[in-house]
Amino acid sequence: MSKDSKVVRVGLLGIGTVGGGTFNVLTRNAEEITRRTGRQIKVTHVADRNVQAAQAIVNGKAQVSDDAFALVENPDIDVVVELIGGYTIAKELVLKAIANKKHVVTANKALIALHGNEIFAAAKANNVIVAYEAAVAGGIPIIKALREGLGANKIEWIAGIINGTTNFILTEMREKGLAFADVLGEAQRLGYAEADPTFDVEGIDAAHKLTIMSAIAFGMPMKFEQAYTEGITKLEQKDIKYAEELGYRVKLLGISKRNQKGVELRVHPTLIPEKRLVANVNGAMNAVVVKGDAVGPTLYYGAGAGAEPTASAVVADLMDVARLMDATTEQRVPYLAFQPEHVQDLPILPIDDIESAYYLRMRVSDKPGVLADVTKILGDGNISIDAMMQKEPDENETEAEIVILTHITVEKNMNAAIAAIEALAAIIGKVTRIRMEELSK
User: Which residues participate in catalysis according to the annotation?
Assistant: First the structure.
């Protein structure tokens, strides 16, 4: 595009939920967008397998075809917006767009988490922009906050509710006292969960997003394959209830912390104190807490999915591209916030080496000495107890439940203690373990 041109011509790959939202926001807010950028941003071409549906959305305002590869090679397009998802065809299309000197905007968290390193290198070599705000937390501008707004800080940790499906399920389990399987069915009926909900409920989607945020926060390559991922499928309703009795809420959190040994990169159910703002983020909403050394803890809250919330982030990226497309690489914000030559290959800590506090629940034979045996094992492992709750057996029952909250310890010490506890004759079945985070400092 020539420098004196006032129109940024956009090719849209996919005009489904987010693509339709993007087209509508660009059309509805065209005047505001032009006032802010000094350029008109216009979707001129759309590629979608369902040509008829796409034509109905654009209503003659853009050319529509089913040939995505022709779109990324079209010389009349300045920016390609990739909204088709996945990481096979999407990767090929994005790399081909970059090779054709086109800027790229994507909402594809899996693509960036798995192939971002390769994509950013190609973009740098071709002097084009790859913008990906919409890939994490929908309409919440968390990427911009990490890359720019908090740029003066050394980021210490990130903790986020970054999957709306699991947050909806956990909220319903807490508020209605329902089991996971029942709430999952309801989430699917309401459209919050896919027919195959694996990516959401097993924490994979959250791990994609956490990988991206961690890379920006700490200036390191994407390392999704090293993220520890544990979903919510094994959570029992009673644990959510007991946690609340102790003053905690259970959330699926993506957590990343940097210390002298390396970076923690983990997704799992987590107890957090109910007084924390993030503990009160309910339904399908998202929230991310970022702790900077200068600013302290900061909270970013909003809709993490949906047509127009995600479109808000896509269009904001398009506006950034419109402002910076004629700038040199040195004048643009680096993809991972740090200059490429200063990105560091930091080690990801194995889950055994992370430090956390723990919630433990065990079913025991109701007889003398059991509690003493359990506390001795914890003591021998240098694991101190913060709180304890015993649920007495019902009449005619001979089994009770004990819930213990511990202070912070190393995970491998906790694993050894749990194995020793489970070996006690009085312990029935497995010990339930959920990690705990204070998120205060």
Answer: 209
